[in-house]
Amino acid sequence: MDLVVNGAEQSLDLDPRTTLLDALREHLGLTGAKKGCDHGQCGACTVLLDGRRVNSCLILAITLSGSEVTTIEGVDHPVQQKFLEHDGFQCGYCTPGQICSAVGMLDEFSQGWPSAVTGSGPPDLSDPEIRERMSGNLCRCGAYPNMVPAIREAAER
User: Fold this and answer.
1) Where do the CATH 3.10.20.30 domains begin and end in the chain?
2) Domain 78-156: CATH class, spelled out
3) What is the DSSP letter of 154?
4) Is 29 helix (H, G, I), strand (E, B) or coil?
5) What are the Cα distances from residue 148, in Å, to 6, 7, 143?
6) For 106, what's the count of Cα atoms within 13 Å in the CB-facing half-sphere?
7) Topology at the third CATH level for domain 2-72
8) Does the pLDDT at position 74 exceed 90?
9) What is this structure's pTM?
10) In a 10 Å sphere around its CB, with 0-12 CB exposed, 13-18 middle and 19+ buried, how is residue 21 labelled?
């Protein structure tokens, strides 16, 4: 199976049951995406697949031949600096998934994708809008109040 990970072509010979998360962590040594719940409920494993955010623990790697994957190790986005400036993390376990999700979410927002909070008219990146769009990523430490302004300010850049 061939795929591009963080801009580098990778050729992997994997068991068909291997998830993208396990391929990244165990076969490529990219440990930024975390195995939190392994059921797609926490978002710690979030990566970008062909530019869209996904829970890598739910996707079989064998189905991704020819795809492009970006992990936290390959992200270069203003949201990273804003997370530092706003102390948008505590223990840091969820931070890679939160940042990958924020990058994907901001791209979705810029394309005009609505959320459950979006009313009529164009979406507005309000605090409730950010919270709704990031709701698939959990933080056990409760750093959400610092993440929201970090994401808003990154969007303004």
Assistant:
1) 2-72
2) mainly alpha
3) H
4) coil
5) 26, 29, 9
6) 18
7) Ubiquitin-like (UB roll) (3.10.20)
8) yes
9) 0.94
10) buried
